[in-house]
Amino acid sequence: MNDFFSDITHEFTLPFTNPVLIFAVLLAIVLLAPILLKRFNVPSIIGLIVAGVIIGPFGLNLIDNNHPGVSMFSTIGLLYIMFIVGLELDLNEFVANKNKSLVFGFFTFILPLSIGFPVCHYLLGYDINASFLTASMFATHTLVTYPIVSRMGVAKNQAVAITVGGTILTDTAVLIILALILSSSDGGLNLIFLLKLLVSLIVFSAIVFLLIPRITKWFFQKAEGEKYLHYIFVLFVVFFCGFLAELGGIEPIIGAFAAGLALNRLIPHSSALMNRIEFFGNSLFIPIFLISVGMLVNISVVFNGLTTVLIALALTVTAIFGKWVAAFFTQVIFKYSVTQRNIIFGLSSSHAAATIAVIIVGYNAGILDEYILNGTIILILLTCIIASLVTQKSAKELAISQENAPFAESDLGAFAQEKILVPIANPSNIGHHVELALLMKDKRSVNAVSLLGVVPNNEEAEKNIVSFRKQLKEFVQNAVAAEIDVDIVTTIDHNAASGIVRTARELMTDIVILGWPGKTGVLEKLLGDKVDLIIKNVDKNMFICHIEQELITHKRIVVISPPLVERELGFDLWLQKVVKLSQELSVPVLHLGHPDTQAVISSKKNGGAPFIFKQFVDWHDPLSCGDNIREDDMIIFVSAHQGYLSHMSILDHLPTRLEERFPHHSRIVIYPKQRVVEGLLESDDSLFVPSNF
Predict the structure, then answer these.
(1) For the residues of 148-186, what is the DSSP string, one character each?
(2) H/E element holding 615?
(3) Which H or E run includes 293?
(4) Which of 105, 251, 410, 596 is 20 to 30 A from 605 via CA?
(5) What's 17-25+42-396's CATH class?
(6) Do the Cβ atoms of 78 and 289 come closer than 8 Å?
(7) Segments making up each domain of the chain, as ranges
């Protein structure tokens, strides 16, 4: 009995050593901290950091931050944050504003460094190496508060994009400074060292940005039926890139961020895979990292003497002031709002990962003393708290301002009440069409994407309905994983075409996504004619789609539109969908059309989607646009019904002609919404529809 109680007592000896118990405690904190602090309007990030202070070695000593399990999860969380930052970065926005990122990166590096060096050297009395290294620490920041802007839905704002870009630039510069100072103190700073560093960077970049995307594309295609393997593969890429960076003498966080950039175009933001990545990160890895940051904080150093307090205050004030000045100059130069300035300051003022790396390495090398070390620990806690409060407030204000932005009446259908209908005849080859619908759907819409099955009105009707619903189970699961509502609609009708037309009206659908018409042959030609009949009789935005390859493999969207298309009723909506698709796939849009149309498109903000305009006037032979189309392009042709402004007889039967001209390209033909056509499929004659709807 004594042995039994002795074993139990041993398990609860402080600090805990049992990995199962440690993990249970960490999960309890992740679960309870946000709930308890929510009533006090304290951001969950602060709660997790404070919880780490309490349970850490300098608090209740429940868990040792040097425990292998804690260290592993902390490292995973840090790399995960940097990976998500690279993954969620709007590359189109980043490329478009790379100069702004360079400017902010310069400000957020040079200003804190310039302010910090005289403070450390002249005020605190440290030598040049120690002062320069500590001042470079002020220039660093860790995107600890990035989950806040991501959760608020403002991660794609330009202010966020340039802050992320500037973060990578300044942290990379600081880490290079660290390597140079260490080499200098060891007498190893020479040409050979610099050449090794340069070669390492070149080899690392080649592997990450050239090789890994190609392998990822191949794997995603080969493992199409095993979606969970996609997530495992992504995790492998993250930590493999972190390891490669470490091998090359670069910090692993740079490798994780590079992995995010490399996979950015291959993982659409609205996909089920992205949702899994964010879910595991926000629920497990990142919270444990934040707890581990708090475990580094030693509050008792405040009571060790006036010197520690003064140094801690000097470091904290200098760090915060330097970052605020950088945000202020960025705001003034680029004419940002106060809210945008605050979000830049909030994101860039938290110190954690890179700061810890600089200070710990400098301390172990004997360049920095314990006063700087302890002062930095206090700085980390205070800057994370301030950054969290500022980011929370400014991100909320920015989200509200985006929601309240003025919009046209046509936007109501696209956003709040948007309804998408995907008629399906053969579930086995509809995967890409459903994926397209999920990518195009605006998440702000309260309505589900409807998958429609039209069953013949015979004695097998009920059996066919059950079979249809079973076959669509996989697509529904993928949509749920992507946090997009999908419902299955089945109807009985004497033919599929009339069922589609009737259901589209009953559901008051905005967009109908149809499969491509059938190919040659007498019967197939009849099928195509019936598709034309559906198009003419559905008063909706029609998307006739043939997706030849995985959506993520396309590198550009080419839109061809006839003159006067901007005057059609459905213009705004289909343009919004093209923009949404461009953002999800992180690809540019080449528009071939009339200058008046291009002027209207240019006048709209288009959510930051990069448009390239090229005039196209050869409407005697519209398929001559092929001279501008590359192998990996997605072709979107905008047409119109007879009798409307943008109608051109040469575009009649366009799907068939496109298939003959571009058989190996993904292609979409859009028929914008127009007035209701009389005589809505009132005939009882049997109609046929393509099997690949």
Answers:
(1) HHHHTT-TTSHHHHHHHHHHHHHHHHHHHHHHHHHHHHH
(2) strand 611-615
(3) helix 286-295
(4) 105
(5) mainly alpha
(6) yes
(7) 17-25+42-396, 409-539+679-693, 550-675
